[in-house]
Amino acid sequence: xxxxxxxxxxxxxxxxxxxxxxxxxxxxxxxxxxxxxxxxxxxxxxxxxxxxxxxxxxxxxxxxxxxxxxxxxxxxxxxxxxxxxxxxxxxxxxxxxxxxxxxxxxxxxxxxxxxxxxxxxxxxxxxxxxxxxxxxxxxxxxxxxxxxxxx
Length: 151
Fold this sequence. Notes:
about 35% strand, Peptide Deformylase, about 20% helix
């Protein structure tokens, strides 16, 4: 495993749409390992998407304190409710904002074994899932903010 550099601010890769992962091989597993290693070496972050490391693949890692979740080709298949949240992002240091996210989401994805999995999230997990899947489509949280917060 290795630490990778997090892309920040106006890096154009953060605005690109990621490609689906067609084959889950050792290279993809190594990227997932590096993503987790990088995530665990940041301060106060719960998730990371591949484009934040300059990789245009549909890969996400999340750990909100219950253990690592790896998602390959995640898609939101169900959402409901609304929650007002405050978000920041490793790729946009010192920027915070208030926005609305679904209070519940269900996501379909693959795990590192290629198995199709579904994960449901409420509250912070719903927020993380939405935030990271947005990254895979070149969308940053600041695109959805209705009020910026000085940090």
